[in-house]
Structures are given as structure tokens and as C-alpha cells.
Design brief:
The complex is a heterodimer. By secondary structure, chain A is mainly alpha-helical. Chain A is built from ten helices and no strands. In chain A, α1 runs antiparallel to α2 and α5 packs antiparallel against α9. The mean pLDDT of chain B is 87.
């Protein structure tokens, strides 16, 4: 096991939560209803809280004098190691819920598995995140069923959201080279696929939605390869620290 | 928050939170939701963000029957002149000592 592999592993996990947390934060001020605005913001705050713990740990592993803010605000797109699913734009409410369903469907099994990691620090973060992600999945699943099994309009939007994001689900279960190097510490994500399939199929069936075919799948997020959207998101998220480096509240 | 014109209104649910073990559920507000399960989630997100709750009840507002303000006099005034219903109305004789 190399320090570099552990650093990149923790950084990738932190990036997943921060990017998705920021995306959900983009709903604040324009959610379809007050109750849902608070729910999405709550989930965003859970994710950003997880990201902070992971960035702090990553900064310690690196030992190069960088802190959590440096890692979040002063790395460029290609240095971000998040899975491509989380960087996808919010789209309409149906697409946001689809992204939540597909992602939380993975994390609700991932965090409990990581809670058994040989790395005590990661295990601690994971134990906290496990409870939060269980709620995130429940929230997404309930909405998926109500939108899917709702009106013709809500059903069409929910199906469109799931279809549009399906190509980013392959990456959820494709271990990176670093993970293979971190046996005992990292979670074997490939092994989570069976449980995810069952959970997602159950929700889609109840929602009367069709499961898309496993066709071409995007990959490369953990290697810093991203779609066209992440750069724009980071430009907005990082603006203040880029314009006024080191600015503090 | 924005709301498109003609958005169908979701039912209103009254929310009751039990603050700590041993205390009764207290009315804290209301949320809009399609059904009880969603109302529970909304109540959790809106009203228990600072660790306020140990238990949540949601009741669809249409199932609550409220007293009519016009009936106030008939319902409540008769209690006003029955001071003997207040514990402080009674004088405890000296002989009783410390109760």
C-alpha cells in the first residue's frame, strides 16, 4: 500500500461528496417547494460535512501543508477525482432525484462496508456517513415512486432522468488501480453491484419505470477525466478563493 | 422557492414533535406533502434539523376538527366562575402540617 494511493482514494471520496453537495446546493432558492428546498439543502450539508472530514484526512496524509480549503478550492478540474455521475447538472427535479437514487443506492451500501475498513479514520467517517446515506436513499426512493407512479408528466420526466444518467452508473462499481492497491482499506465496489441492482430494480418496479439497458458506460472520473459540466461548476464554486486567495470569513 | 402558476396544492399536514423522552408531542407547524410517508420526511427535514426530536407525528390537517371561535363563550366562559376547581381555592388547615 502506498501513501499516494491512500491519498488519492480519500481525495476521490471527498470529491464525490463535495461535488454532489454543491450540485444540490444549487437548488437553494429555486426548489419546487419549501419543504423540498430544505430537504435538498439538508442532504447537501450532510455531503459537504462528509467531504470536509475526508479532505482533512487527505491533507494530513499528503503532509504538504495544504488544508481542506486548498484541496477544495484550489485544484483544477483534471485534479478532481470524483465519479462522473455526481457532476451531472441538476436538470429538472426528476433528474436530480434520479441522480440521488442512483448515487445513494451505491453509498447506502458503500459506507457500511467502509466502516469495516482497516483504516480507523476512514471507518469513523464511514460510520457517520452510513446513517446519512440511508436517509438520502430513502428520500430519493420515495420521490422516485411518487413521480414515476404519478402523472404522465412526472412519470416521463422521472424516466428521462434515469435514462440520461444511466451511462454514469457503470463507474460506480469499477474499482480504480488505487483501490486494488488498498486491500483491506478500500471497499471492493464491484461487490456492491448485486445489492445495488436489487435495490434499484425494486424502486423502479414500484415506480412503474423501465430499467435502462446496460449499454455504453462512461469512465475516467477517478483518473481526473470529466465531462463538460464540472469545469463550469468549479469556476463558480472556486471563484472567491481564486479571486482572493486565502480569504477567510 | 418558486412556484409555477396553477401548481396543484399538496395536502397540508400538521406536525407534532416529541422533544425528549417523557414529554408529550407538541404541535410545531405544518408541511405540504403528497402522503403520510412524504410528510414524515418533510417534517424531519423542516423541524428536527437541530436535534429537537425523538419522535414525529404527522396528521393530515383535514382530519383535525377545531372548535369554532364563535362558540368561545359557550364552551369556556362557564369555567370562569368555578374557582373551587382550582387547587389554590382550598385552604389547608394548620393541623395537616407539611403535606
Amino acid at each position: 500500500m502506498s501513501e499516494g494511493a491512500l491519498f488519492r482514494y480519500v481525495l476521490g471520496l471527498a470529491d464525490d461528496q463535495l461535488v454532489l453537495g454543491h450540485r444540490l446546493g444549487e437548488w437553494v432558492g429555486k426548489a419546487p417547494m419549501l419543504e423540498e428546498e430544505l430537504a435538498l439543502a439538508n442532504i447537501a450539508l450532510d455531503l459537504i460535512g462528509q467531504a470536509r472530514l475526508l479532505y482533512q484526512y487527505a491533507a494530513e496524509i499528503e503532509g504538504a501543508g495544504r488544508g481542506e480549503d486548498d484541496l477544495a478550492y484550489r485544484r483544477d478540474e483534471r485534479a478532481y477525482l470524483n465519479l462522473q455521475l455526481v457532476e451531472q447538472p441538476n436538470g429538472d427535479f426528476g433528474q436530480t432525484i434520479a441522480r440521488q437514487l442512483l448515487y445513494a443506492g451505491m453509498t447506502q451500501a458503500f459506507w457500511p462496508a467502509l466502516a469495516g475498513s482497516a483504516d480507523a479514520r476512514l471507518a469513523g467517517v464511514a460510520a457517520k456517513a452510513a446513517k446519512e446515506s440511508a436517509y438520502h436513499f430513502r428520500h430519493a426512493a420515495l420521490w422516485t415512486v411518487r413521480l414515476g407512479d404519478g402523472t404522465a408528466e412526472s412519470r416521463a420526466r422521472m424516466q428521462t432522468g434515469v435514462d440520461a444518467l444511466w451511462e454514469f452508473t457503470g463507474e460506480l462499481f469499477a474499482p480504480s488501480d488505487d483501490e486494488a492497491d488498498l486491500a483491506g482499506v478500500a471497499v471492493d465496489r464491484a461487490a456492491l453491484k448485486v445489492g445495488w441492482d436489487a435495490a434499484i430494480d425494486r424502486v423502479l418496479a414500484e415506480a412503474t419505470l423501465a430499467r435502462p439497458a446496460d449499454d455504453w458506460m462512461a469512465s475516467g472520473g477517478r483518473q481526473g477525466l470529466h465531462g463538460e459540466h464540472l469545469g463550469h461548476m468549479l469556476a463558480e464554486m472556486q471563484f472567491l478563493q481564486r479571486a482572493y486567495p486565502g480569504l477567510a470569513w | 422557492m418558486t412556484e409555477a402558476p396553477n401548481t396543484p396544492r399538496l395536502p397540508l399536514w400538521e406536525v407534532f414533535i416529541r422533544p425528549r423522552n417523557g414529554l408529550a408531542h407538541r404541535h410545531v407547524g405544518a408541511v405540504h406533502a403528497a402522503d403520510a410517508e412524504m410528510a414524515m420526511l418533510a417534517a424531519r427535514d423542516v423541524y428536527t434539523r437541530r436535534g429537537e426530536g425523538r419522535s414525529i407525528w404527522v396528521v393530515e390537517a383535514r382530519h383535525l376538527h377545531a372548535s369554532d371561535p364563535d362558540d368561545k363563550a359557550a364552551l369556556f366562559d362557564p369555567a370562569d366562575d368555578k374557582v373551587y376547581r382550582q387547587p389554590t381555592h382550598y385552604h389547608v388547615p394548620e393541623e395537616v402540617g407539611d403535606m
